[in-house]
Specification:
Helix content is 72%, strand content 0%. Helix 7 runs parallel beside helix 9 and helix 8 packs across helix 9. By secondary structure, the chain is mainly α.
């Protein structure tokens, strides 16, 4: 009895397996027909279609994994693209700081002052750069405020376009650079670039104004550094003459002159004289 029961159950299971295998083969062939068939039977492709208006374009399916949208249909920059531009501006900010502001002149003059004192690394580079940065922000604050009020705020409010904001924002910087640029430097770069310049700010292109401004800044900074060097050079000459008259030629003059330089600089309130008069050269 048990043997017949076992044989019956085994036969029933075999029939079920055969029926299941046939069903699976049927479904697989059906799926293959849909995937490999023509465009009328396939279900994994959506045709792009066409658009008649901006609203249709925003919902247009360009591909299965990509959708193109833009901000409210007004053509302004999307948030992600604006973040990318801001990060790019931050990356080139050091170059803009050096080329378009008073940073270069201030840092060179402070460096000449330290060399004239012959104190090697006192004050250190970090202090000089930090002081130059804050003095630059102080000098450039009127220009920065003008750019913020006339260009950035209207652009954020949607009152002007990006091109207008860029054109308005660069004007205060051009005015600042033009005031600090010598005429001969501007004429030199205009002649090199075959640019007709009438002597007015509006006629000189920014591509010629920036290098002319940098050359003028370097010239002015070196002139100021030379003037700062003169009193300390006199101290070196006096100390060297005194040592030679006493026959102490093996003793370096800088070892004796450096304390006198520091004493003269402190008694004359040198940092106040250098920094205040340096800032006044921009006004």
């Amino acid at each position: 009895m048990n043997k017949w029961y076992i044989r019956l159950v085994t036969a029933f299971c075999a029939v079920v397996l055969l029926l299941s295998a046939g069903s699976i083969r049927t479904e697989a062939s059906t799926m293959n027909r849909h995937l490999a068939g023509d465009t009328e039977t396939r279900t994994n492709i959506t045709e792009p279609g066409a658009s008649d208006s901006a609203e249709d374009l925003k919902n247009l399916n360009i591909a299965n994994t990509m959708t193109v949208t833009y901000s409210d249909g007004n053509g302004t920059l999307a948030g992600s693209l604006r973040i990318l531009l801001i990060l790019t501006a931050i990356a080139i900010a050091p170059t803009l700081l050096i080329c378009l502001t008073s940073f270069t002149r201030i840092l060179i003059v402070l460096h000449f002052t330290r060399m004239a004192l012959n104190t090697q690394s006192a004050p250190p580079n970090q202090v000089l750069i930090g002081l130059a940065l804050f003095l630059t922000f102080f000098i450039m604050s009127p220009t920065i405020n003008t750019i913020n009020e006339d260009a950035i705020k209207p652009f954020e409010a949607g009152e002007i376009t990006q091109e207008e904001a860029l054109e308005i924002g660069v004007k205060p910087l051009r005015e600042f650079m033009y005031k600090q640029t010598q005429i001969k430097d501007a004429q030199m770069f205009c002649e090199i670039g075959n640019i007709e310049w009438t002597g007015e700010l509006s006629d000189i292109p920014t591509s010629a104004l920036i290098p002319a401004f940098m050359v003028s800044e370097l010239r002015t900074a070196f002139i100021i550094g030379f003037v700062i060097y003169i009193p300390f050079l006199v101290i070196d000459m006096v100390v060297a003459s005194a040592l030679m008259s006493m026959g102490m030629m093996m003793l370096p003059p800088t070892t004796i002159s450096m304390p006198f330089k520091i004493l003269l600089f402190v008694l004359a309130d040198g940092w106040n004289l250098v920094i205040v008069n340096l800032v006044k050269t921009f006004y």
